[in-house]
Amino acid sequence: MNPFNLPLAPTLQADLSQSGKQSGTDAINNSRDLFYALIHISEHYHALPVAYQYVKQQLDSINDNYAADFSSKYSPAHLGLLIKKASGEHPYPLPGSELNACLKQYAPVFFTELSWLGNITHAATSQSPLAIELMAVYLRLINAPHTIANNRDIYHAWVLNAGIQLPTIHTITFAQQTDVSDEIFDFAALQLALGQFPRVFFPEILGFTLSYCQSLSLPEQFFPDPKTAQLPGFFAARTGQRQQELAQIGNLIKAYINEFSEETDAIWQRIQCGFRLHQHHLERCDQALSAHFHGSLSPRQAMEKLVVSLLPGAIGNHGKIRLGSRTLDEWFSEKPFKSANFLASLLLSPYIDRTKPENSKLLTLFEFNGPMFGVLDDNGKTVVKDWLMSELNPGLQKTKKAQSAQVKVGLKTITASGAAKSASAEITFTAPVPTKPVPYGSLSNRELYFYLVNNDLYPGVLPVAKAKVQRILTISRYINRLPLRHYSHPAFDKYIETLYQKEKKAYKPLGRKPNLPKEAYVWGIEQFAPTILTDGCWLQNVQQLNYFPNHTIGAYLYKIYRDECGNGVQEQNHPHIYQQLLDSQHIKLPAINTKEFSKHPCFIDSAFDIPVYLMAISKFPNFFLPELLGLNLAIEISGLGNVYLRLSEELKFYGIQSAIVDVHTSIDNLATGHTALAVNAIKFYLDDIAANFGDDVMQAHWRRIHTGYCSLTTASLCFKYSLIKHYKLKRPQDATTGKPDAPPTEPVKAKAPAK
Ligand SMILES: [Fe+2]
Ligand SMILES: [Fe+2]
């Protein structure tokens, strides 16, 4: 097993006992509320336990209703069947005149597509080959050919062109569009909720993604004929791309099962459950939209509903009467009842006259003197007749479809099992079973590190994380002077250029042996491990910014984050490159997601200060956006000029790999690299604020950006001096013996982290 895949172990559980309802949570009563909270998760993190329960309850329901259909044992052949099971053409397409109204209905689902993969790599999984590969799939999907946010804009423009004004996705108005079906928001909220727990639901996410990749979107199903309705091109582009990913998803499922082979069958059940969950929501939305646009159920759907409604009184009343290979009682007793199979068998039975369906024996059963007289009223008989006519005379059915309104549906009352209960996802929150509380507020940074690396499992840490960020920002604000009294783009450009030139001029090539001994560098490399093994973490949630009108800022930041993760290529992943460096120096450390890592005696306490701050602020990308923009600039610009160039030469002098330094020197460059992206993001943000709120407010936000910029120094201060103090005065302790290493001659150089 690859140990870096262990953070994806199928046994992972989330501890929600300390993140129960807070004051605002009461507002989350249904999937629309949850949808809104998850779009604004940076401010509504109290919704996380509700989101978790929402997913869990649905998975339990799928298991209750469909587990009998799952293959109990995993085999590549069974997986192959799942991959090949493509959705067919819709039996009841919509007229082209309904296209734009359908797009309005479908928008919440389309706008949140793939959100369940947005956080698939984060601090805990940054070196996992499985997570990196899945991120690669995600990156290919969201770039096919436009980004998700761009596609959303195009979608808006398309429906606007048809005279439909869609509210923007981040508004409460969007979530409360009463003319959009509940089922649509149930689906969209699920897509968002899954993404909050990428590890706990990893097998289900694999299955969910497989179903997503092999299914046509509902608009494509409803409007299969381009002569009737021309769908926007991005539908076909995305569908084409996701079909190309099917094989890779299959490979990932195989790889995951191989990694945790002792739990193969349990994982396989969960993958199938995730797959079925996606299919189930597609079907529910299909039924809801069919009902919405047809004004009734399709004849087949109406027949299925009718049969299901008769089931409670039907069992045990049919003696030995058979349909196909089974008795009717066997059909009716099966759970879940397979209505599609039942109706297919019924159509092939002697009860049906396939040439003249209106003369079928089935219809006479319900007439006077028939064995089932009184079971159906006139409406019910019409349902049966319409179904027969539609199935055996499809040409007639298409013209009669709109007239078959005898069963006003009602899809809100149809569930997966066919049982009559509310399908609108009313969310009831049950407080989690309390476990021993973690005193987050009194934990040291060393202890907090574990909970922040694993914050998807411990959402209870978030209030403490937010307070910590606010503390550091407050200090930063009061101890730093604003360099530009009045912000303007030219002044900002000049300021950045001055910083850069100063760094550049300070560079002097290494002409002699470095001042510090090799041991000092090796020890410093070890102390930076908690920081660089989580490289990129401050941006790990910036995909949330995608949902806001100024999503270009999020796009700039996500571009940086992608690079930190190696763009789905392990060899280019920064934590991986640092791991190679540690390995080359025989520095053996536990995995960062374990308590053993943060308890490791080799680290000085303050080695956790920077990553704890970076991971804490990462959870609030919207709330702390200006500060995050400034912090990001500080990190990226620290990779330029003198310090890194010299460090690279010094490492090479001692034969130490310098790849982690070199990659930052190039990728953080000011012309087109991360520093340029960081600068552009700031300008774009301030432009937006100025345009919306005026110059005074923009200047206040510049102040916040600068506070964020300075916060890196504030958060690093203790570490910087501790490095010197520990190396010079105490000397580093040998990680295995606890005894001091060879005495150093000079203090280790303290510098900003390589990012
Ligand atoms: Fe980096
Ligand atoms: Fe960078």
Describe what this molecule looks like in 3D.
There is one protein chain. This protein has 755 residues and is mostly helical. It folds into three domains: 24-294; 300-408, no CATH class; 448-730. Helix content is 55%, strand content 1%. The protein is built from 33 helices and two strands. The protein has helices at 31-39, 48-66, 76-84, 99-111, 129-142, 148-161, 172-175, 182-195, 202-214, 218-222, 233-244, 246-259, 264-294, 299-314, 328-333, 339-347, 361-364, 378-392, 394-400, 445-453, 462-479, 489-506, 518-527, 529-532, 551-564, 574-584, 595-599, 609-618, 625-637, 642-653, 659-667, 674-693, 695-730; strands at 322-323, 326-327. It has a two-stranded antiparallel ribbon with strand order 1-2. Helix 2 packs across helix 8, helix 9 packs across helix 13 (264-294) and helix 14 (299-314) packs across helix 18 (378-392). The longest helix is centred in the C-terminal third of the chain and has 36 residues, at 695-730. The chain starts with 30 loop residues before the first helix and ends in a 25-residue tail after the last helix. 45% of the residues are buried. Residues 395-424 and 734-753 have low confidence and may be disordered.
